[in-house]
């Protein structure tokens, strides 16, 4: 339930179109529904503009389905990240309109179209192996109504590949830079654009990469201004934040 | 030299008001001036909207003064971070209008007023000890033309102090959350607003704080959406990014 | 064998009701039984008020069964943690009264009811994924005779879910706060109650969570007073300590 | 302002002995006083039973004095930790009754005597070098009204020194075990008592001690039940928690 | 080939009992045999008193067999550590006298009995779970001719179990202390004996144990004198060194 | 397309032997071919003298085949590292001349023979277990046209094995030193030769090896001059760099 | 008071030469003297063969003097490590026979000559900078009655320097290998001798040495058998253990 | 004494121009001079082509002077790194020709000119603050006879500064890339040249830079081929290795 719907409700109450009891009924899910194992945060849409996203990792299939139902049955869109094919199959049985992006591991159920028309978000990756994380970011941003343009495998080892796509990158309102190994992409991109760059370190690599620590530290120490960092492999976080900024 | 000035110059050339030679002369500093020990990036204003900021740490007083002169004499505003009182004294001798924020350790020389009127940036700190970093963020954002409102010492150990200032925080277009020790502030704030939160871990604390590592990890792992992180104690980076977002 | 039984024995010896030889016989298990691969610490009940708990991880099924028998056949209650279903099946064959909590991975055999009536222990978790650890704490505290009330999925990203349960939390004599990811829950809870808070970091999360390191450091650096920390995922330790405090 | 005083006030208002305006006046400091750089948490006494303690590290002398005044002038006791001699001198000028424990680095101003008579807290250290942290714990616990008995330099390298003091240790209601280097003291003590043990790792040591990391990990991994851990060198935290438990 | 055999050979050459060519032939394997993938160090027995031990981890079954043959066919005893059952089966086909200790994961082939009669080595463990590492140490020390006495599951959480075996421990010429989790055993044992203590940290534990790091740091920081440390889980190294010392 | 071919092309255009359109056609792949998921860097051969090498880890079989085709169909040699047998099977179906080194996990397709005749590269390993990494280095260097001589299992624990091969090592133009565990090999070799030593730490070992961290730090801290280090297990990187130096 | 003295005392009591009261008086210091801030472990000489050594770091000058007096006045030798010149001056005023080794930072007071004549201990260092730690080891071993021979600056970067001193090293009964930076010395020495090698990592170095971590890991992962490790910079520990072994 | 001089000497002996005794006399310093605290490695010039370089850190002024004399009096050039002004002053008194580079902290004494004419080495830095390390590399390479060209402050945040100097960088035979903070420079440079790149991480930065760890990991994980890494701040090592490669 977003701010508009809420105002609408109050106006209707004021105008006598909706009884107080009915209004209370509609609102009673607020601020959260307690499923026992989970408290679904319905209030979030009011507070943050988008309903709670389901982080599926270390949840059971049943838990995921139950939370999906709770959200979707209120007419809200559903975005589930880190979802397994098995979870998707179970959700699909209930919601035929559910869609799965295998690489991104996301389930989406669209109850109402959302569309931002401010501009687009660019998602750039250092290598082919960073695509899974980039796709999670892309799916998230799209689910939140943004246009997304991707530039994959444009790492700094062959920097002309990056420059060949500079127009796409510089034309975006927000840039998400996804890179593993040494993660230098974020600094280089950060130096080339005048828009916020959200850096996503990935765990892609080996040896002294230490599961993404290397790229993480690189990005935190970026000598370019305008770069901030989210958790390793956190494509969702980057997509969500990019959308938040793009809406401004 | 920003985009407007540049267009202006080209228009004047076109109109015959400025000779080609003169135009070239004005532009010859582009893309950078080589001072030997430093290449001042004059192109940055064009690329990123604000001239190069001087990071004074591990530079000599003479180097800082030389870079200040190079920037200011082109009519650009100067922002120098991590500046010592000694550096300020030396700069002050040349630029009487230079100002020093002792807690923030910033020198500012204002050549032309900049003013954004989109809304304000909120800077929140967990404790009194985080103020130095918060002030660096504040000074940076102000130097870039933003209005800033501060809420200091509102950490989660006495969470009613945070709630008492919720209006200020929720009214901002961007929030900078500065905290040391366990750094939980960013997650709590992130859960309460629908605007981007830039988290700045500080090295304030002791023991298992490990010079800011604790707060850094906390913030990177934030379970709240819309939170991204900059380097430990990087008030400047937060202020710069916040300004970039606020301009959108 | 607890203090009361021991006094009782001595009194009986004194009164001539039990011969010295018999008394010695009953006590000969003290201070421990040597099973070769393990020395079952029968003395612990005297020293610490509860018989040795079996930590099943990296023990064989046979070893677990043997230790269960050793403890139970002296009439003591059994609590086995980190037990696999296979271990439970083997124990169940011998002790029909044995019970298994699958999520908590605990086996309990109750030989004598224990009941504290001082008040209850609250177990709060940040997310659904922290439930396994919370259940281990809960099972442990219950096995030691405590009443336990749980508040699951009340993390700080939607802090109103925590406040909605504040009464339960503030009414407890001891609070166990279980959280992964950034672990901010412990600090927030610690600031809201005037009772000891036992913080349990969990390994739930990914990336810069580093298998629980993030939550661990957060909790150790808590700016709230009255918070202490046990090992990552150590639900048992928290439940045991909470019971010890609740008995005071 | 504690619960009793508050009830008293309400009763007086009810009885007409205090006017509503006066009552409001007395309460207006609640929940905190905003000193600009700090928000003194007056509400804490109500919430947690003791007024805010001043953590002096990285505060200026003026800030410490100002907070002391704010607390003491409401008739509350003051406890300031990590205080320098300079801070003490400045506080002493205003409050002649202020006292300084040089080793503990604590300032105390006693406005009203508090006294718990439940039993005593034992503070045990591994070595002479751990005394500073132990004294901070001791001073804190005493300031909160507890009796404290200390057993210093009783580390496990000469374990008979520990056993010689076993009666003192086992007689306590809560034990604080303070140790640096390898920190084995907490485990050994934890195995010998049936009361909560609060382990405080210290940064005492060298080399692979890594500023207390060694003792910290040891204590977190303690194989003894009933042991929980606070931050490295956090004597205050241990003393505060011990007092909280001792009051139960 | 050890020193005695070598002197013998030279004496026989001198006495004309062995021709120079034959002598050269017998020695030609020295200093090593090159198997292509491995250079078997036959010289080691001369240099260090025992032929090369085979570290099987990350070797193929064929490689292990080939090295076994190379060593055994010179009449030397074979000790292979970290050997899988599969490796044992393959070796057993060639050497019927080969023996396997499943817990220790060692293969031994005895070509000539070795026997030290100086005294015995004590192997003490903190818990049942440390037995695999302890057995590796025991097998190694026995293979090198030492008497070994074991005291398993005598950790500091129930320190009376350790004291009950003090005589065995104090009677040894060298003590090997094997412990995981917090590893405090080494310090306590080190303080009780006047003989060298070889500490072996194990990776047994979870959470902040960090795969043995906790026990490793504890042991390195031991406040007891006479304690030195080998690598995590390095039972072989401890057994080898203990034997070296016991021979003195 | 290397520099010679390029000059040739321009000469032919100049001489009218190739039309401008044809020339453009041949060059249009430059600087890279965009396969969607990957941008194959054809320009690299010009820039760095050898076409892009395929790093197969975390790529799909289809992606690897597609990139192989893209490179080989331009007449360039193919080197694919970290290739699985499955990848090899798929590539083999298209390119019968493809070869697989199982230990090195490399696929090579030779389109044109390359041969350097400056001298040879020596690859030395500390143990048998380091061979996989050494073979990757060897295959890489050979694919780039170098003669390679290997000295395997020559670690410092039996240093005479190293000295027995000193001539081979000192005769090389570049030495690659591959070692796990403590990685001391690089320092010892570095002190014995007057040629560049490329040190490759391997993840071989256990315990405090921490997946190669130990060998990595050892090599970075080498007290021998002329030693530089590549990533843990990065045989390819060492072979590539060695070839680059050998060509000088 | 060592075993001989003790037996002597009992014999004298038996023979009536010493009254029981006098005997008790002489023994009453056992097992320790409580100085308040320290419990001097007089029992250690009986248990471990040498009286307690004073670790001066983070003790005050007064504390050091008091402990010296306590030990020396019983007729025991004193060894104080990590002693400052100031401490020495204060001790010297009371004990004119006190001696100071500035590089080793040790104070020694000799009350009775001790002399082992089993053989000598060799102390080898990698570089000149490791001498301080080596001297601490040397002084300790000498104070305990051992002959010590030193080979300084014989690191592996110029390995012929080591071989030139091989006779000295191989002739020792125990070898102490002291090295910073990459610490490869211990492995090389360990491969060359058939006696126990005690490895002492030093904090000498910079960068990725991380204050001795590099050398520590190297030594723990030593591929040579017979090597064990003490804490970083722990010359005392090495000297003490070497003496313990040499006495066997 | 290099190979030429040595051949010369032998020829003279052969020709009777130098007596055997005199020859022996000249050679007796080989392979090293033992100064007690240091063994000066005269053999190194023969083995590695350049006499031992003095690493002054943690040596005394007297030790540095003594080693300088030992080297220089044999007619060899001297290079001393990490030298303090005080050391220089002491050396200058004896060798008037000694020169000091304050930023690089190097002392050089030139006894014979060395000159390579193969090509030049490029030294590139990310920022002004990396200059000290770059100068150490430069001084070292020059002392070894190389031409060096520097490109300072060309970091990736303003990548056009790098491209403006591409010709200088691409024209070099070896490139040294010096960078702190995120160290991305090495990857970008590595992707642009076909010559070996020696990456030197510096400790310049703050926060999550962790004293150079960030840049170190970045460089080790470089996705560009042909990049190898030396220790943090190890300008000398880079210069030495670059010279070694440039001589090929």
Automatic annotation (TrEMBL), chains A, B, C, D, E, F, G, H:
Domain of life: Bacteria
GO-annotated molecular function: hydrolase activity
GO annotation terms (biological process): 'de novo' IMP biosynthetic process
Domain PurE: 119-248
Full protein name: Nickel pincer cofactor biosynthesis protein LarB
């Amino acid at each position: 339930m977003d701010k508009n719907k809420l105002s609408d409700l109050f106006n209707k109450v004021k105008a006598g179109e909706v009884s107080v009891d009915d209004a209370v009924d509609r609102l009673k899910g607020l601020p959260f529904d307690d499923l026992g194992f989970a408290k679904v945060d319905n209030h979030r849409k009011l507070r943050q503009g988008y309903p709670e996203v389901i982080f599926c990792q270390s949840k059971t299939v049943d838990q995921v389905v139950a939370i999906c139902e709770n959200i979707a049955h209120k007419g809200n869109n559903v975005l589930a990240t880190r979802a397994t094919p098995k979870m998707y199959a179970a959700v699909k049985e209930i919601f035929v309109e559910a869609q799965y992006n295998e690489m991104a591991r996301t389930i989406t159920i669209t109850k109402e179209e959302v569309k931002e028309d401010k501009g687009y978000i660019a998602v750039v990756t250092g290598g082919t192996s960073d695509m899974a994380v980039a796709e999670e970011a892309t799916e998230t941003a799209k689910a939140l109504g943004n246009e997304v343009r991707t530039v994959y495998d444009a790492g700094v080892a062959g920097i002309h590949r990056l420059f060949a796509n500079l127009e796409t990158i510089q034309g975006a309102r927000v840039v998400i830079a996804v890179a593993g190994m040494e993660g230098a992409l974020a600094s280089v991109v950060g130096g080339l654009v005048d828009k916020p760059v959200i850096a996503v370190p990935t765990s892609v690599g080996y040896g002294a990469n230490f599961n993404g620590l290397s790229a993480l530290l690189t990005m935190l120490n970026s000598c370019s201004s305008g770069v901030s960092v989210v958790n390793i492999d956190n494509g969702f976080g980057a997509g969500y934040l990019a959308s938040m900024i793009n809406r401004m």
